[in-house]
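Notes from the pairing session

We agreed to fold both candidates in a single pass and log them together. This is the raw record for the first candidate, unedited. Please don't reformat it; downstream parsing expects exactly this layout.

Candidate A
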Amino acid sequence: MHNYKRDNTSMVLAMRTHADTQSVPPQERLEYWSAYNRKALVGLRPSSLAQQGLLARQVNQHIGEIGLADITGNDHFVERDPLLVRQCPKDSVFTCHIKRGKAYFVQNGNVMQLEEGEMIVYDTRTPFLLGFLTQMHEHLIDMPIENFVRRTGISPPQLPMKLNADYQLSRMLLSLLGRTLDECMENTCLQESSPLVGVIYDTLGTLMRQQSNGGGNATSELSRLLAKRHIHEHLIDPHLTPSRVAQAVGLSLRQLSRLFSQDGTSPAAYIWEQRAMRAYADLRNPAYRHLSIGEIGYACGYASQAHFSRAIKDRFGEAPSQVRHNSQD
């Protein structure tokens, strides 16, 4: 039984929006889909050769800094050409998870075929085309480029990157990330500050790094990932320690420290880094403007406002009050 929690009055549920072309006249569906996505996701140009026109449904929501979309439809393709890149700028990295169907992706001279269960990670600042050859279902993750780079260690020149199940660890990580996205989209009471944000970044970063390196030690990678997930789920506990994390995932403290050293960090440093990142995001989030700076710090696991202010200043070069003020400009 835990004795830590945010005050219910400070909880903000992730807002959802949706679109469905079924009730739209066939001749207006493409423009309707384009207009909705321009606001909810990214500027793109849809097209469909299907006899009945574009039949598609989309649900969007944000958890923290991450946007999520659940999209189903018939065969169609979407294009983001150079004109749309200029007219509708978007500094994000997208990850598309093919839940059902077959697809193809074109960007920077790369042409990739995508099978069910595979993912493609790409930069929205570069023109692309994504097409579906059959009835389709995809989950899409929308991550700000700056945060994506900082939290995964992957840089834009490494994109686009196809993620498949060629290795045992790849299969495990793809399955884990897929289940996490399912959990996000199925939970209608998901909170804006859900710990699943950190879980998504960590799982995706691990998957991309091991794919680039040609496999890896499945046991150690999964143990480290489970430890990180436990940390994200208990960040608001001021009593969270490396010893408790090790106990939760069935490792000794020495084993846990050895796993984190492979990332160039320690369990304690990782805990405080994730608290700082979460607090920084909350300070910049308009949904939390009603909270004082001290309340945000406490909700992120900081026992005192002085410690919180010092940690944010050391990590981001600005005091918490400056972070909040600058986000309103």
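Candidate B (folded immediately after A)
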Amino acid sequence: MILEDIGYNNQFEAFRIENCPEGLETGRVVTVHKDRYIVRTITGEYEAEITGTMRFTAKDREDFPAVGDWVSLTTYEESFAIIHQIFPRFSILRRQAVDHTGDVQIIAANIDYAFLVQAVDRDFNVNRLERYLTICNSGKVSPIIILTKTDLTDQQRIDVLYSAIKGRIRDIPTIPVSNATKDGLEAIMSIIQKGKTYCLLGSSGVGKSSLLNNLSGKTLMRTDAISLSNNKGRHVTSRRELIVLENGGILIDNPGMREVGITDTAGGLELTFDVIATLAKECRFKNCTHTTEIGCAVLEAVENGEIEEASFENYQKMQREMERFGESVAGR
């Protein structure tokens, strides 16, 4: 194995040459267990922990390694290592940490594409897709929508869902797939490139682990049977893990996410709701809140149907959420 097989590139090599002392190895974090990390290098996998200096100087969770990170480390016998430094990330998926007000949780780092996985049964929710799109746009990750469990419905239902997506989300590839019949798998495999990293995002039970198993051709993740009462599978992935496919693509499976709190500070919301952002420039007042103001171009677009009311309400909800998060961070 060479490092390029797990996503290494010239950008990381340039940083290593400039900033990493001689004698340190380079590796990628493939699994995180609380404060322990599994790091893959050209010589094997090591269970690692960070230096005391890294722990002491960390200001928040973003200063700790995450799955997908490239790190410099010292390796020892018995497959143990000490992480000294995290390489700069070219992309990052983050959300509000659950039950920790004002904190950020890193979902994964150095991701090229995110598969936004939703089942065509009761899980389907365009509002949630817009949330996933916002964290992708904020983190500089390219999104691809995957609709799973198509074998549980008919083509008419799939067409309706496809139209619902296209009515609110533009220019994002959408691929229907069945993990049971394997219809649609070839379309996904055709876009997976060697050396590129793909992250699976979705709620519990939407078929992410089954999709990973099918794409790899192996049973890498255990899956539970579909419940007859609610047509939902029980999610069994309990941690984030990086896996290399036979065609050279790199996949990161994630535990199901019940909450996707917005922490956007990089314009992700404006990119997701680009029509609203563009129309906002035409409002009569520069500080228009798009609620009750006279001369609001956004409200006018909602009234005449140019913007779906549900999408506008979702935008407002995430905007308020982002503002509250910013206030929580400022008050810490």
